[in-house]
Amino acid sequence: MSTTHRYRYLPPAPGSAPAKSLVVNPGAADEQRFPFYNTLEIGRHEAGRTELPAHLLIDDPTVSFRHCLITQSPGGRCTIRDVSRNGTRLDGRRLVPNVEVSVTVGQSIEVAPGCAFVLLGEAVGTDTVLDEGGRTMGAAGVTVATVLVGDIRDYTVLVRQAPAVDLQRSVARLFERLTEEVVRHGGTVKEYQGDAVFAFWEGTLQGGQAVRACGAALALNRLALELAEDRATWDVPGFPLRMEWALATGPVVIDSIGGTHQRAGLSMIGEAVVLAFRLEKFAGDETGPIVACAMTKNMAGDAFRFRDLGEMHAKGFDRADHVFALEGEAGAGADGGSGGPQ
Question: Domain containing 220: what range?
Answer without folding.
Answer: 142-336
